[in-house]
Amino acid sequence: MTPELVEKAAFWQARLLSDQCSDRDRAQFTTWLGESDAHHQAYGLVTQIWASNSFSRPQRGRALSRRHAVAGAAFLGLGAFFAPASADARIIRTGRHERRRIDFGDLTIDMDACSSVTAGPVRGALAIEEGRCAIGLASGVRQVSFRCADWRMSGTRGRYALDVSKTLMTVAVIEGALELQRNGGGRLALSEGQVLNYEFQTGRISRPDTRLDDLTAWREGRAVFRGSRLDQAVAEMARYCDRPVRLLSPSLAGQRISGVFHTQDPIRFFKALTHLLPVRVSFDPGQIGIVKL
Questions:
Q1: How far apart are CA 212 and CA 281, in angstroms?
Q2: What is the pTM of this model?
Q3: What's the half-sphere exposure (Cβ side, CA atoms, 13 Å) at 68?
Q4: Which pLDDT tens digit goes with each residue over 126-152?
Q5: Is the Cα torsion angle 105, 107, 113, 118 positive or negative in sign?
Q6: Tens-place pLDDT, residues 250-261
Q7: Residue among 115, 111, 113 nearest 101 (CA)
């Protein structure tokens, strides 16, 4: 990341916050932001510095000095890093057993429980942070981009499902197509019906043979497990509980479970575990605990 690139990002940050910013300016910024991952990283750095120094909205005639102050600070000690959240971004979260729809005009996101999305001042700053989301792009719109982990994804129309946990990102194309580009890596293309898994720890990419309706079953109030690991099934059903769920015996994590369960009644799922596996489940006021018999 060069000083010139950070200077340019600082210019755009000041311009976007200016009272004189026009629709043409915003369109030009969107084009610049989408040209490369380096532009995303530079803009993330600048907005993070802007936030950390508590800069207020620039007044007329002061944008240039603010811009130079931010660009200088970037190379005096804060280093180069990417931070999707900024002074202009808002983080949208859902709690336990809560769902939400957010509408950005030509892009809609349905969020499952325990999910979060960061929405910046322009569409290029949209990021799926964690949880499960169903994304829809209106037919015929210009290319729209969003980020998930260290991937940038873009499409012109379609419906997609994303599931982001601490260890794994799953992306599925329900309809249309999607282009993915990893920071510092090559491009991948997913067509309708295809699924991609990305493991954060190893960087391993795979394309599993997964049923698409299983990935979106949560929108209908169902959780579908087909030989799923117990720790993954427990984590999924815990989204809908009124208290934390703990798998207290680590050796249980790799046990397998199959079945279809209603997310509106997660307690029934945990009670069913005692009939499906050699476990005991305790329902305490502060948590649900699962131990091996």
A1: 31
A2: 0.67
A3: 3
A4: 889 899 999 998 766 567 788 888 898
A5: negative
A6: 999 999 999 999
A7: 111
Q: Residue 190 forms beta bridges with which residues?
A: 178
Residue position matching structure tokens 């999607």: 178
Order of strands, sheet of 279-283, starting from the edge strand that comes earlier in the sequence? 245-247, 288-292, 279-283
Q: Output phi, psi for 216, to 5 deg.
A: -110, 10
Q: Rounded to whole angstroms, how far apart are CA atoms 173 and 22?
A: 35
Full 3-state SS string of the chain? CCHHHHHHHHHHHHHHHCCCCCHHHHHHHHHHHCCCHHHHHHHHHHHHHHHHCCCCCCCCCCHHHHHHHHHHHHHHHHCCCCCCCCCCCEEEECCCCCCEEEECCCEEEEECCCCEEEECCCHHHCEEEEEEEEEEECCCCCCEEEEECCEEEEECCEEEEEEECCCEEEEEEEEEEEEEEECCCCEEEEECCCEEEEECCCCCEECCCCCHHHHCHHHHCEEEEEEEEHHHHHHHHHCCCCCCEEECCHHHCCCEEEEEEECCCHHHHHHHHHHHCCEEEEECCCCEEEEEC
CB 270 within 8 A of CB 288: yes
Binning pLDDT at 50, 70 and 90, where does residue 217 land? very high
Which residue, chain included where needed, has tokens 């290029």?
Answer: 124
Phi, psi of 121 (to 5 degrees): -70, -15
For 19-38, write each residue's pLDDT tens digit: 666 767 777 777 777 777 77
Residue with tokens 């910024």: 29
